[in-house]
Structures are given as C-alpha cells and as structure tokens.
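User: quick one, sequence for these tokens?
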C-alpha cells in the first residue's frame, strides 16, 4: 500500500501532520532501495544479541558460530538485506494492482487577487523596537504572503453571511456545531461546517497560500490612536505599519465534488462571486482601508471524475479529460447557475436562524 501511494503521488499528493488542507505537510519520496529481513537474518540478529548477553538457550548454535566466524555482526537496520532485482520487480507489480480510491473528483481554481490599496498581514515575529509596529509576512524568498489560513477565515465568513442572509442558521465561535464521530452525524452540522469543516469533519476545500507575483517597494504609514473619551489623539499611542501598495497575489482553491455535492458547489460559486466583486477584505486594517481587492479566476481545472459528477444530468458538448477555464464558455456559466439554483433549493431544508430577543 505504501509503495502504491508513492508511485501515484503525482496524482494524489502525500501529506503528513496537521493543517494539510492549508497546504502544510506535503512531501514526495523517491524509491532507491527495498531492504528486508528474512529468517536467516533474524536468526543472525538473535545470535548476536545472545552472544552479547551470554544467553544461548534455544538458539541455533551453528548460526551463532557462523556469525562469529564471518565477523558479520550487524544488527537493527544494518542487518536488513537489499532485495534482489527480481523480488523488487515482483513487489512493485503487486503494488500496481492495488485499486485507486475514487478521490480525484477535484475542481482546482487558480485565482489572482488584485489589491487596489495597501495590504498587510502582520508578522509579529519580525517586529522589534527598531522596526515598524506592524510588518508584512513574507515567504522564504521574500515575497508577501496571504497565508491559506487567513484566506480561509475571510472566505468562510463570507459564506456564513450568504447563509444568514437566507435566514438559515450558520454556527458561530460562541455557539459552534457539535463535534461528530461518524459520517451519519454530518446531519448535525450547519451548511458552512459541511463545506469548510468542523471538529471531526475535515474540510472539503483545500486552499494554498496566496503569494505576491513580483516584489514591490513597501511604504511606512503612521497612525494615531483616537482617545474614545476626548475624541482627540491618544497620548503615547502613535503607531506605524509597513504596507505594500497594490500588490497582486496568486493562489489556488481546490475542492472535492464527491464531498460537497452540487449545492456546495453553488455556495462556493456565490462566495467566489462576492470575492470577484470585491466584497471580501484580507489582512490588517480593513477599517483603515487596507486589504480590499478584486479577484479574477485565471484558470480552472476539472478532473474527469469531477466533470462526470458535475455534468451527469447535463449535456456537454466536449468530452475532454480536463476542462479548461474559458470566461466566454456559456455552458460553464449555465452549469454554475444550475448549481446556485440547487443551493437555493437545498438550503431551505436546513434549520432556520432563530431571532434573538
Ligand atoms: Zn457549523
């Protein structure tokens, strides 16, 4: 199974650890050698351990002698023997027979975010007494970053707003959905948690970091805090921020059609529309005019499995393996409109928001 996963990592990325839906923990590996421990190796291993501990009862004494005579006293990983070419081939052939799970029903949307003013995601770890009070987060190459986690928070909040506008309940941090232990309990989750995840339910939407396309000069802006009692400038509360003027950031969101169903695609389409129209702000200082942007879909790839699921009851003229985004494709727009209609009908089956007071 492990060999099979390694051989197909170009199709299904391998991940380890937490926050994998935010692009963390991805890795690749290359097969260089397969080693094994056969019965003779185990006997030798035990013999060496016995010689060291002076315990010979129940052991193959011939093996002990051979081992001592040969001077080969390797133990642990060192005792593993490389597999010969034929055995290695046979093992890899076995791995090829493992059926692939149908987890490739993915839609990947590449986005560019064009900020029309200043942008900053504060990185407190690089702030000191000698620097500005707020400084932008950068990646290893020095490019400005909007971390996947920040994008997810703002994007999810907008989806919640859409749900609440329709008078349907979306949970809050003060009153979250209860955790679930099995797939039947998913019915307990609000529509937003079903798409973006909750305790016990992994999100169906993977998001990458959004990275600046080219480095730009930053500027330092000075701020004065306002005293809420006097309405004037508050003493000793002047601060500044290093900001990037009008950057362009690029990233990607990917979702699994098997998990979010067609109404979920409708909700994502509506949230994307708000993002494209500039209704979502990111990073520091939205109230100061920072972080407002307009988005553009630069590419959209639909795996053949996802296309099959999304168009099973629709007539599509092409039958290509990967669907490529084309803004003028009326079929794609018509499909999205269908999913939005599906969302509008399914969303009414969820519990309504209860008015307070
Ligand atoms: Zn919820």
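Assistant:
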């Amino acid at each position: 199974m492990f060999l099979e996963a390694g051989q197909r990592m170009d199709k299904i990325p391998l991940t380890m650890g937490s926050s994998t839906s935010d692009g963390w923990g991805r890795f690749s590996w290359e097969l260089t050698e397969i080693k094994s421990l056969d019965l003779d190796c185990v006997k030798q291993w035990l013999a060496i351990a016995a010689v060291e501990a002076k315990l010979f009862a129940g052991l193959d004494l011939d093996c002990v002698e051979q081992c001592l005579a040969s001077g080969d006293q390797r133990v642990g990983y060192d005792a593993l023997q490389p597999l010969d070419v034929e055995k290695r081939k046979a093992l890899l052939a076995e791995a090829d027979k493992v059926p692939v799970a149908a987890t490739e029903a993915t839609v990947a949307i590449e986005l560019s975010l064009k900020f029309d003013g200043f942008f900053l995601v504060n990185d407190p770890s690089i702030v000191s007494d000698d620097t500005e009070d707020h400084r932008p987060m950068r990646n290893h190459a020095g490019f400005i970053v909007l971390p996947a986690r920040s994008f997810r928070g703002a994007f999810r909040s907008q989806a919640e707003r859409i749900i609440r506008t329709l008078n349907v309940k979306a949970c809050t941090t003060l009153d979250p959905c209860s955790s679930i232990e099995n797939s039947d309990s998913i019915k307990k989750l609000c529509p937003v948690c079903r798409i973006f995840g909750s305790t016990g339910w992994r999100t169906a939407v993977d998001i990458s970091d959004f990275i600046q396309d080219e480095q730009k000069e930053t500027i330092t802006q000075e701020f004065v805090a306002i005293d809420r009692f006097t309405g004037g400038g508050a003493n000793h509360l002047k601060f500044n921020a290093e900001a990037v003027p009008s950057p362009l950031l690029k990233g990607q969101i990917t979702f699994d059609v098997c998990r979010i169903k067609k109404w979920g695609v409708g909700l994502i389409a509506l949230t994307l529309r708000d993002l494209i129209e500039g209704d979502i702000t990111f990073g520091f200082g939205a109230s100061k005019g920072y972080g407002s942007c307009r988005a553009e879909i630069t590419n959209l790839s639909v795996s053949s499995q996802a296309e099959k699921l999304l168009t099973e009851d629709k007539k599509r003229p092409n039958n290509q393996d990967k669907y490529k985004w084309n803004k003028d494709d009326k079929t794609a727009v018509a499909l999205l409109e269908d999913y939005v209609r599906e969302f509008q009908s399914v969303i009414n089956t969820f519990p309504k928001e209860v008015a307070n007071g």
